[in-house]
Design brief:
Length: 161
């Protein structure tokens, strides 16, 4: 009888220990409207000037423009890839970069909406053939504010000439 009681107590302690780590603080997920509010901004300019300004800012920030279509207003770009190797201990290779997209649309004549999206991408591969990739959307409002500030400056320069 004592062995059974002791086994139940030990099992209970182990169960509590394993499940107590699951009660951590959860991060509140942003709604699609909250994300759009961070990622989009209106500018008093034409679609043509807005499009050229976004392209210029992506290049100024070191991004490699992969595609740009003025008719659709869609731009894709990515930052240079950072690679690290740990062949000695884990036999692994790690790569990371940031992918960016922009959508530029003229809402009414002389007013253009620009929406940006940044995603951090991480890839790992091992010497044993195991690969993984994780893409994490950037939801930090400051990142978008800085990019929109630079786009606004580029629009100002283009509009003044």
């Amino acid at each position: 009888m004592k062995k059974t009681t002791l086994s139940i107590i030990i099992l209970s302690v182990i169960t509590i220990g394993l499940t107590s780590g699951c009660t951590g603080q959860q991060v509140k997920k942003k709604t699609s409207l909250e994300i759009q509010a961070i990622q989009a901004q209106d500018f008093e300019t034409t679609k043509s000037v807005g499009f050229a300004s976004v392209l210029s800012v992506f290049q100024d920030l070191g991004y490699i423009v992969e595609s740009a279509d003025k008719d659709t207003g869609f731009i894709t770009a990515k930052s240079p890839t950072n690679s690290t190797h740990d062949w000695l201990f884990t036999g692994s290779k790690f790569q990371s970069n940031t992918k960016a997209t922009a959508f530029v649309e003229e809402i009414v004549k002389g007013k253009t909406k620009i929406r940006l999206n940044f995603v951090n991408s991480e890839k790992s591969s091992s010497a044993w053939g195991q690969n993984s990739q994780q893409d994490v959307p950037v939801e930090d409002a400051k990142v978008y504010e800085k990019a929109f500030k630079k786009i606004g400056d580029a629009i100002f320069v283009r509009s003044g000439s």
